[in-house]
Automatic annotation (TrEMBL):
Domain of life: Bacteria
Originating species: Pseudomonas fluorescens
Name recorded for this polypeptide: Ferric-pseudobactin 358 receptor
PANTHER family documented for this protein: FERRICHROME IRON RECEPTOR-RELATED (PTHR32552), HYDROXAMATE SIDEROPHORE RECEPTOR FHUE (PTHR32552:SF74)
Keywords from the UniProt entry: Cell outer membrane, Ion transport, Iron, Iron transport, Membrane, Receptor, Signal, TonB box, Transmembrane, Transmembrane beta strand, Transport
Membrane topology category: Multi-pass membrane protein
NCBIfam families reported for this sequence: TonB-siderophor
């Protein structure tokens, strides 16, 4: 928007000085004039100009927006900008690029602007001068104060939420801080349409629309979290600017997997200006958390910037004798090799020592929970699950004069269990017992486990003219290799125990284990080439078409010999979408996406079955208000997964040599997931942020075994879910206070095994927050989760280890400071 300041006679002298200074800078001292064909300045368009040197970004802005910008190169020397991403008119885009640069704007015509240094004596440009400002959000959410973002990068290029034709949720930095979210599981528990499933205390699986989310992305680079024998550590929120969660099939983004969705964690990057932040959090169960975050330029010109984040997180658990201690170090450097080329390198190291719980509380014979309280821990206090993760990455970005951009990225991820870092107690029910509390116990120890994942990728994208309209093209290649081995274990201690007499400290002394089995080694390699064309068919209508060609290789070794090997070649995954702009605020869309998932089952011929295919159909309407500060969406979806392995009853039984008992398999299964989602994120009114959504999702096996056909894919996923959090900064004299609250509600779930059934009725958990800001540097925040101390099971199963209590009421107090 454009603000004209009123004429003030007593400021006339300063205004004349500013005008003369502007004329002098535009006519002398090596003036720079950047021109392009003029366009209407009220016309909005999609911008995607990355952060970088201010002069280079202004050059791209002028070329893309048809602006004439006059300025002295000296006033831009050493200055950087965050760039601009999203949908704006040219004046708004210019305002965003210049934020924080100490450069002011004088508009000379609708498409011509003069850039001059800011003058400290207030009102320097008040006579006939124009100052342009905008409330548009950028791509980075840090310091935005918002629950939404101006652009997401989960699709390899920056696009606004409205211009992304699938359901996408962004959990911003502000919301992470307001809810005191500390790790990935906490974050996804707040995300609409996502279910968190506990394999045990340390291995967590995320589900969306009935299917497992089997990979995580870091700045767009895919990482498989389920490999390496349970060595993955949930990412700490301190290093994250935002999390982008796209639901549905995402084969264009990451190759093989389920039609569930993708989580992209966007890490914090160095800032152009110096900043320092720190926080101390104390909470329930002796929780202590300390965070330090320092960022800024490392040279006088600002062409080298750095950031360092350190975290110490130490806490006990609501279950007796359990603890967790985590250390995190994150460092990143950005080098401007030229005005158009930036190199970014960094590393993230996490060390986690935890007691862990390999399973949880038991069910009775009928599947109902045995009466153990929330503090009960059926493990030993010497149990351990200790591991470390290390990620190193490098990214080279070059911006061409024609607005094209080349990005090269390399990332190496190393998940590793400590040497003998896994040692757990586990219970199972003995056959024939009539005592539901009598259990067999065993102790399992691992002498290590790891996953080394290498990711290389290159993308090239930019606009081009065809038939009088501007279109966008993205080309990319990617290679991912994952070498892993599962922890080699041995079960040594065994016996029986009545769980009513179990004491984690005294019931079972720690046994020594000296003999270990050979590890299971696995290597998977994915390679792909892909292209996406965003076609401007007409002013309100955009089509997106794309395809990804995949190569997938799998090999497993056990006991020092090959145990399985297969490959999938030239598997093409298509993508298509339409976006229609109804008006300035609403767009409707329809999309079709696919993904494939390799199988290890074999048919009668001995050949490995073709991969399953996930097909996702989605249509909806998205709204964008207040210059993008509020986003809404309504989506309807239907997903089919076809080709699942079923018994081939027309073949022999046994089906030798691969099946010594039972039939060979045939790729004939089919299942379906469908429903709708309603979501809102951003600022409803000044100071009032809202983030949340409602999901209705049903799933069904359409063709499977006789016991499964007609039943839900996962009965432990609720049909209805509500995830909501809101905060409000009080007005007037109470503006130092911010209050917030939210709810996590869901319908009933169950888990059946024969005649035994475990269940949990629908429930709602309420959370709250109060923040008091002493001044611009310091604030104190109180968070309370499960305020009414609701007792519920977050997960149920009719097994000896299948019941998991939800967290009881807990509180935390955080002191934050900045400098």
């Amino acid at each position: 928007m454009i603000h004209r300041r009123p004429h003030r006679p007593d400021r006339l002298r300063h205004a004349v000085q500013a005008a003369l200074l502007g004329l002098g800078l535009s006519a002398a001292a090596l003036p720079v004039l950047v021109q392009a064909a003029p366009v209407s300045q009220n016309q909005q368009r999609d911008w995607n100009i990355a952060a970088g040197p201010l002069a280079s970004v202004l050059d791209q802005l002028a070329r893309q927006g048809g602006l004439s910008l006059s300025f002295d190169a000296n006033i831009l020397q050493g200055k950087t900008t965050r760039g601009v991403q999203g949908r704006y008119d040219s004046a708004q885009a210019l305002s965003i690029v210049l934020q924080g640069s100490d450069v002011q704007v004088q508009q000379e015509s609708p498409s011509s602007f003069l850039l001059i240094p800011a003058i400290d004596a207030g009102g320097a440009l008040e006579l006939g001068a124009t100052s342009i400002s905008s409330d548009r959000l950028g791509e980075t959410t840090e310091h935005s104060g918002s629950y939404t973002t101006g652009a997401v990068t989960i699709g390899k290029t920056a696009q606004s939420i409205r211009r992304t034709p699938q359901s996408v949720t962004v959990v911003t930095r502000q919301r992470i801080d307001d809810q005191n979210i500390t790790n990935l599981t906490n974050l996804l528990e707040q995300t609409p349409g996502v279910v968190v499933n506990m394999t045990d205390s340390e291995r967590v699986q995320y589900y969306s629309r009935g299917y497992a989310i089997d990979a995580i992305q870091y700045d767009g680079a895919t990482v498989v979290q389920g490999s390496g024998g349970g060595s993955f550590i949930q990412s700490d929120s301190a290093i994250i600017d935002r999390a982008e969660i796209l639901r549905g099939a995402t084969g264009m983004l990451r190759g093989a997997g389920n039609p569930s969705g993708t989580v992209n964690l966007v890490r914090k990057r160095p800032t152009a200006e110096f900043q320092g932040e720190g926080s101390v959090t104390l909470g329930s169960w002796d929780a202590q958390r300390y965070v330090a975050d320092v960022s800024g330029p490392l040279t006088e010109t600002g062409n080298v910037r750095g950031r360092m984040i350190a975290v110490h997180d130490d806490k006990d658990h609501f279950q007796n004798s359990r603890m967790e201690r985590k250390e995190v170090l994150y460092g990143v450097l950005a080098f401007d090799l030229s005005d158009s080329t930036t190199l970014t390198t960094g590393l993230e190291w996490t060390k986690l020592d935890a007691t862990g719980a390999w399973g949880n509380l038991p069910a009775d014979f009928d599947g109902k929970p045995l009466p153990f309280g929330r503090s009960t821990y059926l493990g030993s206090d010497w149990n351990r699950w200790d591991r470390s993760n290390l990620q190193t990455f490098a990214e080279l970005e070059h911006r061409f004069d024609n607005d094209w951009k080349l990005k090269l990225m390399a990332q190496r991820t190393h998940f590793e269990l400590d040497d003998h870092g896994f040692k757990q107690t586990f219970f199972s029910r003995p056959t024939g017992t009539s005592n539901p509390y009598l259990m067999n116990y065993q102790v399992t120890e691992g002498d290590g486990g790891e996953s080394i994942q290498n990711n290389l990728s290159a993308t090239l994208n930019g606009p081009f003219e065809l038939l009088g309209r501007t279109h966008e093209l993205m080309l990319g290649v990617e290679r991912i290799r994952n070498d892993s081995y599962a922890s080699a274990t041995n079960n040594v201690a065994s016996g029986q125990f009545d769980l009513r007499d179990w004491d984690p400290k005294t019931s079972l002394p720690e046994p020594d284990i000296t003999i270990f089995a050979h590890p299971v080694r696995t290597r998977t390699t994915q390679q792909a080439a892909y292209a996406t064309w965003r076609i401007s068919l007409a002013e309100p209508l955009t089509a997106i078409i794309g395809a990804r060609n995949n190569w997938y290789d799998y090999e497993q070794e056990n006991n020092v010999k090959s145990n399985g090997k297969f490959a999938v070649d030239n598997k093409i995954v298509p993508y298509a979408a339409l976006i229609y702009d109804i008006n300035d605020n609403f767009s409707t869309y329809a999309s079709y996406t696919e993904i494939f998932n390799p199988q290890t089952a074999t048919g009668v011929s001995g050949a490995v079955l073709e991969p399953t295919t996930g097909e996702a159909y989605e249509t909806g309407i998205k709204g964008e208000f207040y210059e993008g500060r509020l986003n809404t969406s309504l989506a309807f979806f239907r997903i089919y997964q076809v080709g699942n392995a079923l018994d081939d009853i027309s073949g022999p039984n046994p089906c030798l040599p691969n099946y010594t008992s039972g039939y060979c398999k045939v790729a004939a299964g089919k299942n379906r997931s469908q429903g709708f989602e309603l979501e809102i994120s951003g600022e409803v009114l000044p100071g009032w942020n809202v983030g949340g959504g409602y999901t209705y999702n049903t799933t069904e096996y359409l063709k499977d075994t006789s016991n499964s056909t007609g039943n839900p894919i996962r009965t432990t996923d609720p049909k209805r879910m509500l995830r909501l959090f809101t905060s409000y900064r009080l007005p007037g004299e109470l503006e130092a206070w911010t209050i917030g609250g939210g709810v996590q509600a869901q319908s009933d779930i169950y888990n059946r095994n024969g005649t035994a059934e475990a269940s949990q009725a629908g429930y709602a958990v309420y959370n709250g927050m109060v923040n008091y800001r002493f001044n611009q540097q310091y604030s104190l925040q109180l968070n309370a989760n499960n305020i009414f101390d609701k007792k519920y099971y977050r997960q149920v199963a009719p097994t000896p280890t299948g019941y998991y209590w939800g967290d009881p009421r807990n509180v935390s107090v955080t002191l934050r400071g900045s400098f």
